[in-house]
Amino acid sequence: MRLGFNFTLGDTYDTVQRLLAEGRIDYCEFLIDNFFCVDPDELAKAFDCPIGLHIMYSKFLEADRSTLVEFAARLKDYIDALNPIYVSDHILRFSHEGRAFFHLGEIDYAAEYGLVRDKVVEWQEIVGQRIHFENYPSIMDGGLEAPAFFERLMKETGAGVLFDASNAVCAHRNCGTPFEAWRNVIAKAQHFHVAGYRQSLIEPFISLDTHAEALAPDTLAFLENFRSVFDKPGATMTYERDDQIEFDAIVADLKALRDLFGQPEERRHDLALTA
Amino acid sequence: MTLLSLPSRTDRDLYPALMSPQMNAKYPADHKAFVRIDVSLRIYWHTLFDICPELLELSGPDGMSIFRPFMAWAEEKKLAFDWSYYLWVYVWLRQSPFKERLLADEKYLRSIMAASAARWAILDRGRSRGIVIGCADTADLVIGWKCRNVRLGREIELIEPEEPLPTPPDLFGYFTLPSFELDIFPGWQSLAR
Question: How large is the ipTM?
Fold first, then answer.
């Protein structure tokens, strides 16, 4: 399992460089549309490591085709320059009746499957490559239908799943989605996310994906219990941290992941060659 | 947990309430749906007051004397809550009981214009590099620049032009910049709702 760190804006540039220099991570994931005004060649030179591209605001379920074509044209410049390990996106609702959510919405997996499938097919065709779609940290009971939805989506569209392990933990805590229900999705997924979560401020408590806390014990237990399903040749796991950027705390979490998954094959090979 | 007559199985069932304090009040406080809507509403609150904490001087520390009536007004006007979110708060404040105190100190306007410029720079995915925001209440301009370098974030500038631009026809106006230079004035665009 290769470990990575998410790079969302320039203020964590030095953190990522240090994590790479110390061998804490093996690749970096750009939140790519945050950097659409940075020259692709400059971005390609930013870090001496493999790169993943994570899309935040394509809004592909809501945007019209011409908007998506324009977005994809810009994205392709970065795909060409960076030759990413993967390209990923979100299945989310950004607005309702033209009014923007500030806490993004989960789709209705049963009622919207056909629409989402068609949009996924269209979006992959426009971008010209396979896209890995991230699962949502479900709160309401509709989240029980997410594992079957993603399994079917992969089968019928050829899309991948960017499986966010801590989002699945939130869904388990909030609506009881069993970890076991995700087994087939995890087995087919190559790329993963993991992060901390926190509780809501009022009761009945719900768990919220925040990217600002240490990895929770139940997240680590989930990874450990499914370690052999997660780990596979070419697999990546991005540790996401967008707030409370404390280097030692990040290193502690990355060390826990390294202890769990071991050094990736590529790194062991590199070490063997240089030994 | 109280049984709920309103649909609440999926997140989608709650979409209309996610930006409505009035609708949240229809859900029993001990239900998960109430908490999920509360989480959403808190983000609208924090997006406003964490970025423009000066506004709490007007409202009091919980911000609710601004937040609740503004959100109700925004619902009535069907505001899109795009990058101009903060500018619409100013529009509302200007016709609220806070008007006199708001206009007595330009720091509120500067904070609000900077917040909206920053939000544009964060959210906009078009090819424009920057946005210039003007207001009929000031000759100053605020510019928001998108991330231009891998080591930088977004940048916000307050400009006091030697030769003021024409006053926007509405309270606020804006135009976008195709490069990282303020070298054009194509005229003011009005805010979309």
Answer: 0.95
